[in-house]
Amino acid sequence: MMDEGVFDHGTETGQALMDVLEGRQPWRRPVWFMRQAGRYLEEYRRTRAEAGSFLDLCYRPDLAAEVTLQPLRRFDLDAAILFADILLVPQAMGVQLGFKQNEGPVLEPVRSEEDLARLDPEGAAERLSPIYETVERIVEALPPHVALIGFCGAPWTVATYVVEGGGSAERMRTRLAAARGEAWFEKLMDMLVRVSVDYLARQAAAGAKALQVFDTWAGDLGDGLREKYVFDPIRRIVEGLKEKGVEVPVIGFARGIGAAQEDFARATGVRAVGCEWSLPVSYMKERLVPQVAVQGNLDPALVMAGDPALKAGVEHIVRTLPRDRHIFNLGHGFKPDTPVENVEKMLRYVRELDAELN
Ligand code: CP3
Prior knowledge:
The chain is an alpha/beta fold and 358 residues long. It is built from 17 helices and 9 strands. It has a 7-stranded parallel β-sheet. Strands 2-3 form a two-stranded antiparallel sheet. It starts with 15 loop residues before the first helix and ends with a helix. The N terminus is likely disordered. Bound molecules: coproporphyrinogen III.
């Protein structure tokens, strides 16, 4: 399935992603994309059909490794991201999970002490062992200049799916549980922190070079609750990894927190902050770059729209942010109907302008 010589781009001059995360000058500006493996690629749709269901795809190391590598064969990227899902963690804790075609995830909700008593966090990281096998297979197949990023969902975002029983427009039950400080909710958050540390540590042991924590719904919370349910759990994950001797750098993606990104970086100790597209690039430059590396933040709609908006968007970001502190990415994942030609163009614009400026 994985022919030799398919990765015919890139020169082996170190891993640009790791250089930026570890404070060194990279040989070029690192680039990867959230949801770079996915439905906008026909080869993904084929492998997905072969797997039968999305969850079967996640748990088959051969197929999950294959879809992880697919975008790397098309695009000269600096990182691969493990193909899995943030909701595998609650599933491994005993929360029933299904994905309905075109509707997204459906979970058996946890909303009380009794619901919580059904969960088994202790064995969860071990039940996710097919994922570590996927990591091993990917690392074996990757060219040396490409870093593999492992990931998990942040406790807050995962909790919203667990409490709501799936996606939801306002996540109001979860926000109420947080605002009231419900004891069962605090325990759920605590379980998610502990399982996430073990899960990420095992991904690192299997060969992941960096780890991203996705807090897609971090923007739900105001002052006070943001510290408690976004910053503190992610800080505990970062510190928990260090306590286990895991030195792998963590990228935090707390989507939608705007001007709180600088506090987020300081409070959690992440090595880079992923930024949503609504965050001004000038804010990234002035408030974040002095203390942390930044990742992002092109609006995925510009990639759908194409030129001239696409080129202008890329130029604005690449001209504003310095190569040694910036990981080019989107502000959130690709949409399934993104034209592949536009992805190629976007990458070409980044590479050309980055070379011209440096
Ligand atoms: O390429 C990559 O980015 C790696 C793989 C990855 C997936 N999900 C695959 C996926 C990653 C990192 C995720 C993270 C994830 N999953 C998040 C956080 C990031 C974000 O996008 O905000 C969240 C909130 C989820 C939960 C989730 N998974 C939802 C809400 C959905 C349904 C919505 C949708 O896009 O269909 C999924 C399904 C999912 N996860 C798909 C993929 C490729 C589509 C499933 C399919 O092929 O049918």
